Amino acid sequence: MGSGVIVSPQGYILTNHHVIEEADDIEVVLLDGRTAAAKVIGVDPDTDLALLQIQMANLPSIVLGNLENLLVGDAVLAIGNPFGVGQTVTSGIVSALGRNHLGINTFENFIQTDAAINPGNSGGALVDVNGHLIGINSAIYSRSGGSMGIGFAIPVSTAKSIMDSLRKEGKVTRGWLGLEPDELNAESAQAFGIPKNAQTGQLPQGVMVAGILQNGPAAKAGLKPGDVITQVATNPVANVAELLSQVASLQPGQASQLQVLRGAQALQLTVTPGTRPLRRTAKTK
User: Fold this and answer.
1) How many domains is the chain built from?
2) Known catalytic residue: 122?
3) 147 classed as catalytic
4) Mean pLDDT confidence for 112-129
5) What is the CATH number of the domain that holds 152?
6) What is the mean predicted confidence (pLDDT) over 155-172?
7) Is 245 a catalytic residue?
8) Which of these is catalytic: 3, 18, 46, 128?
9) Is 67 inside any structural domain?
């Protein structure tokens, strides 16, 4: 069905949420032939990650890598169980970093690689030349269903953060404002009277508010459709992906500041974020 990565001697295993979604029972099969029933510790559909645990002695565990020195062109290996044939290792390079706007997950920051990743590799390890985990293989771009040299892995930094939250709380808590964001473009800026920079002639960097949930945190803070959010707390936002990430990092119930453009007027609004609702997921076919 898929792959996983043992991340601690205590039997914790990282995999993709879509691998175990809607499963009634989960069995883990190790390379040495041992098997064990797995318990779901927690899932995070927004990043497509899940944390499992098995009870077994003498478990090997992978070393978590560091992304700070990872560069485009670096050699990587993808490990998994493609098409159920058994553990397989394929090699390639890092093709790109920070890939988003793919429409795969709510929160995207993928490592792109040309190491062959096929169905069944999902949840497996993407490792560097030292064998250290740098990503969880998650998705491919394909017209045929097989590898076309465009694979995507969730960075180990994201995976570790999600894993820590799932181990502690069994869930991931994120901030939420109750608004519908949209990219700012020339048409929407003209419609809502957002002026261009007088010196550069460019639109301001920010995210358009396309809709507001009635009685949600954004509505209570005074945000209106047509507003442009330029900064969350102390962090500028230039696109929808950045806004979602910054809002998610806010502590629910703790007031924070938003920098907003309403037409040509600059505003500072105080918003108290709520807790982001869990995403409903479709049943696996």
Assistant:
1) 3
2) yes
3) no
4) 94
5) 2.40.10.10
6) 93
7) no
8) 18
9) no
